[in-house]
Amino acid sequence: MAVAEMLRVTVVGHVSEEEKIASLLYDLGAVEIATPQPGEDVPLRGRDASVSDLERRISQAKYCIDFLDRFGKPKKSLIQQFSGGKVIVPEDVFTAYSRDEAFVDEIYEKCRSYDERLTELTTRQSQLAGLVATLKPWVSLDMPLSDVRGTPRVGVMLATCPAKEFRQVLDSFPASGIDIHVEVVSEDNKEVRFVAFYMRQDEEVLKAILKEHEVAILPPVDVAGKPADEITRLESEVARCAEEEGRLREEVKGLFVYREKLYSLYDYFNMEKEKYLQRSGWYGTRESFALEGWIPRKELGPLEKRVEQDFESCCVLAREPEEGEMVPVLLDNPAIITPFEAVTEIYSMPHPAAIDPTPLLAPFFFVFFGLCLGDVGYGLGLTAISVLLLRKVKMAGIAKKLFTLLALCGISSAIVGALTGGWLGTLIKVPPLWFNPIENPLLMLGVSFALGIIQIFTGLAVKLYANIRAGKIWDGIFDQGFWMVLLVGLILLLAAPSLGSPLASRVAAFLAGAGAVGLIATQGRSKKNIIVRLGSGVLSLYGVTGYLSDVLSYSRLLALGLASSVIAGVIDTMALMLGGVPVLGWIAAFVLLAGGHVFNLAINVVGSYVHSSRLQYVEFFSKFFEGGGRRFMPFKKRTKYVELVGKGDA
Questions:
Q1: Which tens digits make up the pLDDT trace of 150-178?
Q2: With contact defined as beta carbons under 8 Å apart, do 172 and 209 qualify?
Q3: Which of 47, 343, 412, 539 could form a disulfide bond with 370, CB atoms 3.0-4.6 angstroms apart?
């Protein structure tokens, strides 16, 4: 079911057309090129020297993009932020950009020059600011700093002493026999800054005394004038550096106009690199090349047609997969089912030989999501938002499937809302077409359980079909058939009293008994010892509790449906209460209605998606699903910064 048929394809040709065939495969995006297995004794193309040049250009373009981002990132709309912010570029513009490869070298040199000069200015400003900070405490010193160097016989020292230690320091000098003169430059409650004149022969003793009293000696500074004059000069230089830095920053911002071209070239170089890297794994000789890969059967015809039309020496060969080959998996469903592939793909790709669960889960997921959200206003709002995003944002792959799925599930929610009377909670008074879950929760619970039973039986039936298809007819009868008989009997036993029919009770008892006997007799069939075999069969009946747990799990449909309805009703009630206040009350009511319903929609969309998915993964897939498939990864265009569109779609 719905797993695309794959063929092993081989393309061979003359080396003169190798680059052209790589471009064709890249543009078609329909072939997954196989990587040669280790140990294969075949000649390979090897790494092309052009890859190194492309890597250099990629590095240059990335450096320029990151450099420009430091001075202001592109402004993005809400939709662009949501979509990842890729820039829409028409394909003809992209092609024109790609022809100007030398542009990267030019702008790289500009950005590197700006970066180096700005770094120099930043470093210089930091150095000057540090020097100013060092000199400011000495602004009162009325002597050139060049004189601090002293003479061969007399030394001069600038020092800072803790205020509480200063008197002790002064008293220590006479006691040590030092000939010294001290002048205080400035002081405050914490520190005293002074200049000392001393004889050179006393320098070591002086330093020892100052160290003992935690006195800090000002290291030599690279200025010569008085501190006040030097501070003025340094601050002027800082201002000049800042002015130049500001001017350079504005010049850098002038390069923002080249962002789109840089983005395009970065992605172009990466595309070219990918082509070369793929070709490095192709088989080849001096005169020929060959590649192998996988292609969906429906894509083989278009590929053969293009090769026949555009190539003189190339040919395409295809064969069926051989036993043991790990075939990649591509889901292929009708358009209405395709969005639900997101649910399957997020969980796991099915095994190549297994059944695709997507067509089977689609109706259940559609209904479950609607039951969880269950409001006309919320459903129409979700559909509108999803359609808007699909129209405004160029999506592909699982993202496109996911938002198409949400658009469909919005319709489901609107249908359920009409059936149950949910119109923005109770804001719009419209009677339900069926019943109100808040007034009749037991009926809603019964509907949830009934849907759960139907889905569980569907899962068992699918596994029964899979076993029969694989030639395991008896396994299907023993492992699924008997369980279905037992479960039908147990359900009828529960329903028999309400039916009031003795015949129904007898039929139910017979079915339950037959199913139980069948399971006891067959579930231990792999055991050789007959006692162990029967014991295993008896123990298998404990599986009934698992099925009961699965059915009870569907009660979450009731819980989520009530949660969205009750919260919406509370928001409406509070808003109506506020509306009774003149003027401001209606404004507050409008804000509460808008904010409250948007919040309720957001949290319940997440809850509806998560729990509807959970019922598929745990209760449904566990009955039949075989995962472990490897996703089909075709050789095609992949971009980081730009989205390519046709000329008329930009």
A1: 888 899 989 999 999 899 888 888 888 88
A2: yes
A3: 412
8 A C-beta contact, residue 58 and residue 266? yes
Residue 374's region, left for phi above 0, alpha for psi from -120 to 50, else beta, is: left
Mean pLDDT of the chain: 90
Residues 6+ apart with CB under 8 A from 188: 163
H helix runs in 470-529, sequence order: 473-476, 482-499, 502-522
Under 8 Å between Cβ of 83 and 403 = no
- What is the arithmetic mean of pLDDT over 566-587? 88
Considering only CA atoms, which of 316, 243, 345 is closest in space to residue 30?
316
Closest CA to 477 of 435, 440, 525, 436: 525
Kindly give the pairing relationship between strand 642-645 and strand 87-90: parallel
Q: What are phi and psi of 584, to 5 degrees?
A: -65, -30
DSSP state string for 415-484: HHHHHHT-STTTTS----SS--TTT-HHHHHHHHHHHHHHHHHHHHHHHHHHHHHTT-HHHHIIIIIHHH
Domain ranges of the chain: 143-225, 338-478+547-623
Give the pLDDT band (50/70/90) at residue 263. very high
At 39 the pLDDT is 52
305-309 mean pLDDT: 93
- For the chain, give the number of residues: 650
- Judge residue 544's burial from the number of C-beta atoms within 10 Å of its C-beta, 0-12 exposed, 13-18 middle, 19 or more buried: middle
- CATH number of this structure's domain 143-225: 3.30.70.2750
Over residues 333-339, the mean pLDDT reads 95
- Reported as a single tens digit per residue, the pLDDT across 415-459 is 999 999 999 998 999 999 999 999 999 999 999 999 999 999 999
The pair of structure tokens assigned to 173 is: 């000098």
Interhelix angle 556-579/584-614, rounded to 10 degrees, is 170
From the list 303, 221, 286, 294, the residue with the least C-alpha distance to 32 is: 294
Q: How buried is residue 229: exposed, middle or buried, by Cβ count under 10 Å (0-12/13-18/19+)?
A: middle
- Rounded CA-CA distance 616/461 in Å is 15
* 82 or 510: which leads in pLDDT: 510
The pLDDT assigned to 116 comes to 96
Global confidence as pTM? 0.80
What single letter denotes the amino acid at residue 484? M
Question: Helix, strand, or coil here: 296?
Answer: strand
Neighbour-count burial of 177, counting CB atoms closer than 10 A to its CB (0-12 exposed, 13-18 middle, 19+ buried): exposed
* Phi, psi dihedrals of residue 186, rounded to the nearest 5°: -160, 160
Q: pLDDT value at position 473?
A: 95
Nearest alpha-carbon partner for 363 in 455, 435, 456: 455
Q: What residue has token string 């022809």? A: 99
pLDDT at 648: 46
Using alpha carbons, list the distances in angstroms from residue 255 to 105, 169, 251, 258, 268.
Answer: 14, 61, 7, 6, 20
Token pair 């719009």 is found at 428
Give the per-residue pLDDT at 21: 93
Q: How far is CA 115 from CA 112, 245, 601, in A?
A: 5, 11, 48
Q: How far apart are CA 607 and CA 187, in angstroms?
A: 68
Q: How confident is the model at residue 43 (pLDDT cuts 50, 70, 90)?
A: low
CA distance 427 to 68: 51
User: How far apart are alpha carbons 188 and 194 in whole angstroms?
Assistant: 12
